[in-house]
Amino acid sequence: MPRFIFPKTRPNDNTVRFKCSLQNTILDVLKARPGWQEVLGEGDWDFYWCDAWWMKEYFDRLFLEDHVRLNHFRNHFELTRKNLMVKNLKRLKRQLEREQNKLDAQKCDFYPSTYELPSEYHIFVEEFRRSPGTVWIMKPVAKSQGKGIFLFRKLKDITDWKKGQYNPQIDPNKEGPETYVVQRYIERPYLIGGRKFDIRVYVLVQSYSPLKAWLYRSGFARFSNTRFSLNSIDDTYIHLTNVAVQKTAPDYDPEKGCKWSAQQLRQYLRAKHGLEAVKNCFRLMDEIFIMSLQSVQRVMINDKHCFELYGYDILLDEDLKPWLIEINSSPSLTASSKDDYDLKFGLLNDVLNVLDLDNRLTGREKRVGGFDLLWDEGPVFVDEEESDGLSVRSSDTNSFLGSYNNRKASLEHVFRMAQFKKC
After folding, report:
1. Which regions of 351-390 does DSSP assign to beta strands (E)?
2. 15, 58, 60, 118: least surrounded by Cβ within 10 Å?
3. Is the Cβ–Cβ distance between 239 and 186 less than 8 Å?
4. Is 114 strand, coil or helix?
């Protein structure tokens, strides 16, 4: 085990000392921040952008001063492992049925029917036989970037998997196949230009107790490279929108890519379906973000030193109903284009602005850069006078996903107002 020098009090000059385990956009952001200084090797640090492995190995062995921040909660996997995410959502639904009513519990119906295999194999088979001809999708619980995913219509198509031959086991000392989830496939997704897409949305959680969550205005839609069809369920270029999959397509254009900004997507949907239909669609997305976080609020090990930037993957069906596909605790920070780099650079800069290790905020802000405060022990409602001219009502929640993101002007205003209030 390497020797750690535990972070002590901050230097008198308010320098923020940081460590970073990644060599991509986040390191560029940290190095570019005025007054932030990289710590190489052993040394005191105030901020550490670490990987999940480091948290698992070392977090419980550290004593951290109050000001120190790290980018994961200790058991972040409760929300981001596919099987645990569904388990926690099912528990929340049962809780709402007991404590409130079935109507409130139905708000949890934003993820497809899901079973964990092999533990729920026999329950799944009963459901499978009740719905002949349905397409199902298999996903390994602990992999990302589309690895190990496949679609099927017949039980015999997963015979090799059931025998443990489809994929190598996670632990070679354990018997049985790798753990998967099997989900009912969304057979009628919303299509643009005949192609399927999902939406990557960024949610920043500052605390689980009390729950405090911010929603980023910018995100992107990831399109498949091939027109949608259920006649070719073996074609990953049709059914998986992951960039890691799509960029291997023979006709993939790295300059054009397969992405729209969240702003482009919202404008398209509004032009085609009208303002109210799109507002309702995005309101349902907000419910997904909040209810999924509430599903793990009691089991998440809250720690004042920790925060989490989640990457939500949302799919729209042909009725504009949003479905939660998965949640990522380590969303990709490697840029696939200049626009992608600019988005992620601004996103990560605003994460650090919200965390405010520089002590520039009052703590009462509802917007910082591109982040809007969505939940703070309860829903946060919009300030009409600070809505950038957008059509809002005081009863609207403080949510602007896909709206204009003039983050630099917002930051200048926030810092100026914070300085004035402190004086």
Report:
1. 367-368, 371-376
2. 60
3. no
4. strand
